[in-house]
Design a protein that fits this description.
This protein is of the alpha/beta class and 352 residues long. The chain has twelve helices and nine strands. The strands form two sheets. It has a seven-stranded mixed sheet, with helices on both faces. Strand 8 and strand 9 form a beta hairpin.
Length: 352
């Protein structure tokens, strides 16, 4: 049953695709924990850079600088703010699961966010409509969760754990997070987005990281700027432009290949590395030759198609939502153990 929330409008759950292992992600090294995620058979993904787990709050808040590398000066530390994309962790595979939500949340609080501020974000009612008007195929195959709203029990647990809840009618959680991320960065904080959604990779920077739930290893894993560059061999600023060429099958956004089969990822990366963005590339191609004849023809002939993909895939930063200064406070964790233990006992494996 939909539950009225303190933000504008009512929450409607429109969950994203289930999490999958991400090459280059760095698993958090956990200390022993009595609450455990589902058994895992997969090994930890390899990584070219390691993101160390956070120190205890007492040690973390006493530090004024982060250690430098080699002779480089130490970089001043910034406090972190976490945005938790709730819908994806409420599923086990394609099925809703309160047990999965409880376990991922317990691991998140105990080993990832600790006492750092956390803001939980839900999809708003009609959040997909803007993109579906542009592209009817957008998430058209996703029927799970439609019309069910946010589970009141999920909302209650988050509130009892002192996590503010945000949703805005007419916008997906991704757009709300992107808008709030810019506001938080202007306040001088770092941002960590907790979600398996690859759309958030377009936001990665020195001060914006992802942390992803990886079912195969039963852990949250950090994914940073270094991981992105090692995995894709390009800068995250080109991520959105690259996806306009490659498409997004999971979201029902077709790439350029069905129109021009010979235009592949290698060509797109080469052109974007040279011209910086899709729009710069298309404008340049309209005035002069930018590559081989085949690539040039594709860019000129299908420019409008690529621009439409850009509108659909880009996260919006104009959501009517304002950061509340109270959300930046250290989270009170006094209720975590009792609230989550009781919740897990009610909705353990196999019951939800």
């Amino acid at each position: 049953m939909p539950l009225p929330l303190p933000a504008v409008g009512a929450v409607t759950a429109a969950p994203l695709a289930p999490a999958t292992a991400v090459p280059g992600a760095t698993p958090v090294r956990y200390r022993p924990l009595r609450i455990r995620a589902s058994p895992s058979t997969a090994s930890s993904p390899s990584t070219s850079a390691v993101s160390s787990p956070r120190p205890p709050p007492s040690a973390r808040h006493s530090c004024k600088h982060l250690a430098g590398r080699g002779d480089a000066p130490a970089r001043p530390s910034k406090d972190r703010v976490f945005f938790l994309d709730v819908n994806p962790i409420c599923f086990r595979g394609s099925q809703r699961s309160l047990g999965a939500f409880a376990r991922w949340l317990a691991l998140f609080f105990a080993h990832v966010s600790l006492r750092d501020p956390v803001v939980a974000v839900f999809d708003g009612a009609g959040g997909n409509e803007y993109r579906r008007r542009l592209m009817p195929s957008y998430k058209a195959h996703r029927t799970r969760g439609v019309g069910t709203g946010a589970d009141s029990r999920v909302v209650d647990v988050l509130r009892e754990c002192n996590v503010p809840i945000v949703q805005v009618d007419g916008y997906e959680a991704d757009d709300v997070v992107a808008t709030l991320t810019e506001q938080v960065l202007r306040k001088g904080y770092r941002v960590v987005i907790a979600s398996p959604d690859k759309d958030f990779k377009q936001l990665i920077s020195e001060d914006v990281q992802l942390v992803m739930p990886i079912p195969e290893i039963g852990r949250w894993s950090f994914y940073t700027l270094r991981h992105y560059v090692a995995q894709y061999k390009c800068d995250p600023t080109a991520d959105l432009s690259l996806r306009c060429f490659m498409g997004d099958e999971a979201d029902g956004v077709p790439g350029i290949q069905h129109l021009a089969p010979g235009f592949g990822r290698k060509t797109a990366v080469k052109l974007l590395n040279k011209h910086g963005s899709l729009e710069n590339l298309l404008k340049t191609a309209a005035m002069r030759t930018v590559g081989k004849e085949y690539a040039q023809d594709v860019l000129v002939k299908h420019a409008d198609y690529l621009r439409k993909n850009y509108k659909v895939l880009s996260l919006r930063r104009d959501v009517n939502v304002q950061l509340d200064e109270r959300w930046l406070s250290t989270r009170d964790t006094c209720n975590d153990t009792s609230v989550l233990s009781n919740f897990i006992l009610k909705f353990n494996e196999g019951r939800s």
